[in-house]
Amino acid sequence: MTVRGLAVQRREDRAASRRTVTLLVLAAVTGVFAPVAYMAMFTGFHSYDDEGYFLIVLRDYLSGQPLLNPSVPIYGPFFFETMGGLFKLLGVAPSHESGRYVTLAIWLVASLSAGLSAYRLTRRFWLAVGAEFVAFQVLRALTNEPMSPTGLIGLLLVSMVAAASFRSARPRATAVVIGSIVGALCLIKINVGGFAAIAVSFAWAASLAPGRRRQLLPLMVVVITLLPVALMASLLSRDWVAEYAWLLALAGAAVGIACLAAAGDRPPASGFALAGGGAIVVVICLGVALVGGSRAQDLWDGLVLVSLRFPSMFMFPLDISIAVDVWASAVVVMALATRGLTLLSASTAGRLRLAAGLLIWLSALLIPSSVFLLALPLLWIACIPPAGNVEDRVGRYCRCLVPALAVTEALQVYPVAGTQLAIAGLSLVPAGAIVLHDGIRQLQTAGWGRPSLFAASAAPAALLVNVLVFLAGGYVVLGAFTEGTRLGVPGAESIRVPAEQASQLQGLTDAIDRSCSGFITLPGMNSLYLWTHQSPPTNVRAEIWMLTLDDMQQGSLVRQLESRPRLCVVENQKVVDFWAQGRRVPNRPLVDFIRVGFVEAGTFGDYQLLVRSGD
Predict the structure, then answer these.
(1) Considering only CA atoms, which of 601, 600, 571, 604 is closest in space to residue 504?
(2) Cis peptide bond prior to 403, omega within 30° of 0
(3) How far is it, in rounded angstroms, from Cα 99 to Cα 122?
């Protein structure tokens, strides 16, 4: 072997060794996360009970009931088909404990995948480990709603970024995988999938041959810029909606313009492979749902119509002010004035990139604080590699896809800024890694001295901040877990809650067992059916049925319930008020049936057990 060949072989061996060490460290970090994640996942129960909704629908599906019907209209079939297959494979029934173990596994795998994706994009050990820490902290929101599709959505989005990192080597296979993920997301939540599809289309247009690129990419820039305004048009009269739409429009425009100014990739864009991958998943998933008894009309209603009506049914505002829009405008002006940092010296541009990358990661760590909004106008920086002849490890395709995905997925914070914030934050993780990597590389090329020293210390410093945040969070989690009392109801024995809440829920469950042969809940609180081993007497599962079901639907339910012996109602007015958001609950047949025909038989904290007036 020649001297040159030996040198190449040594470089390849060192690279393989670094990959192995990085994989082992990321796996070890996941092992460190596991006990903290377990304690966090098995601490607390929220009375609004999204957890119970997903578990009861999954239980119904596994028992042979159709996935979608007019009274179960909120999520698409992919999540339930996937989770149903997993529960069958594991041989366990849906319960609060089994559901939390599954969510725990998704949390850890998604965090590990975020670290691996960051390593694929940057080849930097410190950034990979830091990205895993940030993702773990962001996804802690899964503990608020175990068994929510949010976990699977997050895992799919991280997997999309990981797949995109292989595009240069395997463009067609990568396109099939990315298209399949987009199809799966559409069949979990149509808005999330639609936003991902727009980001993927944007990156696809940016990678076309110059002629077609000049035709299609400007169109996609217009789409990604105007999408927030179009999506929120019906509620732009609300201050927070208008301010958020303007912020995302500016962020989208900045990303679009930055990608317009860059050259395309060499590998061909596999448009048919993208569409084919998505089509295969959609056809199979919808076919399974239809064979299982779901009607085409119910699929259309659940996937599309309910999503369009949802902003008018329930809204949880985002904490935003006009100052954020001023910040976004200033950032865009700075980008234009410096021509995307190209007019600045390498040292200055590198420091700005490092500051931006650190802010992006820090803002993700601080979610649910609205500080994360400050990161969105900075995403365009990830689109532009540092000047110079050094090989761009990230690649043009990922430089367009990752920031565009972060901007579009931030749209799901509208109209409910709940756990959706976690997905918005998760999409910032790979973008922050790219910006930090570029800053380090640019400072390293600026020469010896302070810039190089600054670059060498940036990634370890970012990791140190992540470790400190993790330790502080772990201390809080340990305290809550050790101070909690076992809930002690069937299927949730190991969950720790405050002693008073445990006593109330145990007493309520025992009272239902003694007094009721069937019961309904106002609002939907489906965990009680799992704890009492009962089935709902109607096909209503949604938490906000009192707001979504019309007179005809509620009247039909009343006719089903009138002849039920020993029928009870469990009501929680505090949760009703939470869902109603200051609105009056309409006086419709089922609501009136409860108000007129039932009297209080017991109170358990915020819960009231009601029995028929004549019983």
Answers:
(1) 604
(2) no
(3) 35
Q: Which residue has the higher pLDDT, 502 or 302?
A: 502
- pLDDT class of 113 with cuts at 50, 70, 90: very high
Q: Which of 543, 527, 557 is nearest to 585 (CA)?
A: 543
- pLDDT tens track for 471-482: 999 999 999 999
More confident residue, 543 or 460: 543
**Which band of pLDDT confidence, cut at 50, 70 and 90, is reported for residue 459?**
confident
449: left (phi > 0), else alpha (psi -120 to 50), else beta?
Answer: left
3-state class (DSSP) for residue 182: helix
Q: How far apart are CA 278 and CA 419, in angstroms?
A: 26
Could you tell me if 256 and 220 are in contact, meaning their C-beta atoms sit under 8 angstroms apart? yes
| Burial (0-12, 13-18, 19+ Cβ within 10 Å), 28 | exposed
Q: Of 127, 184, 206, 118, which Cα lies nearest the Cα of 396?
A: 206
How would you class 251 by CB atoms within 10 Å of its CB: exposed for 0-12, middle for 13-18, buried for 19 or more? buried
Q: How many CB atoms lie within 10 A of CB 47?
A: 16
* Bridge partner residues of 485 (DSSP): 497
Residues found in the chain? 615
Question: Cβ–Cβ contacts within 10 Å for residue 606, how many?
Answer: 13
SS3 assignment, position 607: strand
The answer for 447, left when phi > 0, alpha when psi is -120 to 50, beta otherwise, is: left
**Residue 448: is its pLDDT beyond 70?**
no
Per-range mean pLDDT, top range of 219-228, 418-427, 440-449: 219-228
CA dist 36 and 218 (Å) reads 47
Q: Tell me, what's the pLDDT at 538?
A: 87
How is residue 18 written in tokens? 């670094």
- The answer, as to whether pTM is greater than 0.90, is yes
Query: What local confidence, expressed as pLDDT, does residue 503 receive?
Result: 97
Report the mean per-residue pLDDT for the chain.
89
The arithmetic mean of pLDDT across residues 534-539, rounded, is 89
- The candidate with the shortest Cα–Cα distance to 572, out of 585, 562, 555, 560, is 585
Find out whether the peptide bond into 268 is cis, omega within 30 degrees of 0. Answer: no
CA torsion sign for 235, 236, 240, 243 is positive
| Cα(197)–Cα(282) distance, integer angstroms | 13
Query: With bands split at pLDDT 50, 70 and 90, how would you rate the model's confidence at 208?
Result: confident
- Residue-wise over 545-574: b if at least 16 C-beta within 10 A, else e? bbbbbeeebbebbbeebeebeebbbbbbee
Residue 294: helix, strand or coil by DSSP?
Answer: coil
Residue 347: the pLDDT is 86
Q: Which residues of 323-353 are buried (b: 16+ CB within 10 A; e: fewer)?
A: ebbebbeebbeebeeeebbeebebbbbbbbb
Q: Is the peptide bond before 171 cis (omega within 30 degrees of 0)?
A: no
Measured CA to CA, the distance from residue 485 to residue 4 in angstroms comes to 66
Three-state secondary-structure class, residue 546? helix
481 dihedral zone (left: phi>0; alpha: psi -120 to 50; beta): alpha
Interatomic CA distance for residues 231 and 273, integer angstroms: 28
